[in-house]
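Re: your question from the hallway

Yes, I did run it. Sequences:
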Amino acid sequence: MNSDDKWLYEISSKHKLINFNFKEIWRYRDLILLFVKRDITTVYKQTILGPLWYLIQPLFTSVIFTLVFNNLGSISTGNIPPFLFNLAGITAWNYFTACLNGTSNTFRGNAGIFGKVYFPRVITPISVTISNLFKFGIQLIIFGVFYLYYVFSGADLGVTSNLFLFPVYVIMIALLGLGIGMTVSAMTTKYRDLTVLVGFATTLLMYISAVPYPLSEARKKLPEWVADIVAYNPVTQIIEGFRYMLLNTGTFSWLGFFYTLFICVSLFLIGLIIFNRTEKTFIDTV
Amino acid sequence: MSVILIAENISKQYRLGLVGTGTLAHDLNRFWHRIRGKEDPYLKVGALNVRNAKASSDYVWALQDINFEVQKGEVLGIIGRNGAGKSTLLKILSRVTSPTTGVIKTKGRIASLLEVGTGFHSELTGRENIYLNGAILGMTKSEISSKIDEIVAFSGCEMYIDTPVKRYSSGMTVRLAFAVAAHLEPDILIIDEVLAVGDVEFQKKAIGKVKEISKGEGRTVLFVSHDMNAISLLTDRVLVLKNGKVSFEGETDLAIKEYLKGESEEPNYHFDEQIDSPKIREIYIDTSLPNNIHEFGKKLKINFKVELPFGVDNLALSFQVIDEIQAPITHLWQIDSQFNVKREKGVYLFSCIVEKSRLYIGNYSLRVYLSDSKNKERFDFIDSACNFKIEMIKNKRDDYNWEPGSCKYIEDSKWVIEKI
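Structure:
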């Protein structure tokens, strides 16, 4: 009886480089939806303002940024109202950090449940990214509201012809956040040092990612090598591109676009590989 | 019958001590061996998984060369002492962790009832949690929807089903969780000690459900328990694990005997360290059969070797015979002050002789006290020492078999019957 080829699956220590089993993930699609639902509904249970908190945080940050960087620090945002400029940057940046922070804690935060049941581990980062997409959507709506407000009060705003690339930018943010987040998550199972690092590194990263200022200002005012760091930082490219799509400000080049796309996809794949290597035995070391 | 699951040479190595210093060095060394195409250097080392032996290496084999097959529709029991590797094996089977070496091949989907209630979110209602928990365990939304009424009814939490789980009592949470898990429909179900939860009524329900799953629905079940009664009721075949290896595989009755024999391997009590106060050095029982098995009604002799590093005036030695549920059955003592004995420094052997032991079938152990009876100072206390077993061998009772648990001891009595 030759039945060896009929095995449903094997459990062994060997693993493929990338183990992204779409069929299995598809079978668990309901779990993704339920995780997303859980993440969204439980955060603000027993709060009065509820989902309004999603709006308050970016609005207040934008106000503070406008006061500090544009009024006090007199950073020029061209003919774009500084508040709108900051709001656009912060919306994109928030989605990035939410994905990064949410996924970087995947293994440690879920050790309890991962230690008892099997489901494709990659479901957790995927659902984090999707539930953050929901928050991002809400924040984008509030951006739209202010955008219309400024248009009606006479600001000179225009949308670029490249707006069709907007979804690609959103995907790039997600891939970058996921890629770095999954790497960090995998590393922290053994070496906890990274948790500490990620905490303050994201805050600092914001300042070299051109969130509160346009890249052109950085070129003008910062030493050249610092400006180069800012320019080659993929997050800068995403934020600049994002603002370019929505506000027609800053620079856009196809070279920069493909450079960023390449980096995002590579980091995502590296993250996925490391994540896959870790998921099988992390429970022994976490 | 066809084979649904095969485990081949499953081994699992764990690192002893803390993960920390040295981890990076070992990882780098491993990596260096791997890129040169050599074997992992740390796989060659590793001690046998003996919990109470002193660690001889930084690595330990929690499981070593486990091989077994499971037939479709079979209920396989897995038994073993604490730390024998049962949980590790289950973790590997349920894909929570992967084996260090070896491979498990399966033709069916495996779901486990390991410590139910994982993934419950305290802010969500009972109903929402049923969906979430069900999905975590691998059910689809429509599968859960079709069973939700059944699940709610089984849990007996109808009233609270739309209340957040954080308001539940711990018993209710467990009931709800078990209800979800019990309605899973995998090809292979792993059950680990979940029956020990809930009140008596729910336990009955749970055991019934497991029986129904295994016997009624013909599902393949791997059942892990310390409860020999449940094992003998539910399983067809049993795997006995000992120190990370399979020590016996076969029919349930034989396996349980094998396991219990292994259990009382070192039944006698020894204490070998330096002492500065009176201590019990040794306890051993002279039973009518070897291996601390004693026949009902035979002479039983219980010996205590006591060392006094100085003279004691009012020594009192006493012991209780304890049954399986830790209830004392009888208390016997020797108090020196009753006889006005003053003991000098030295080693004494105290032997308590029970001419006709009346303890009924079962497993018993001793709880021993050594004290000064006047100033109430306690020199030594030993619990659960000297496990021994009472059997009814060649002692037949007509028409009725001896049932374990029907009493604790049988009085010496006689019947007087007159027709009136």
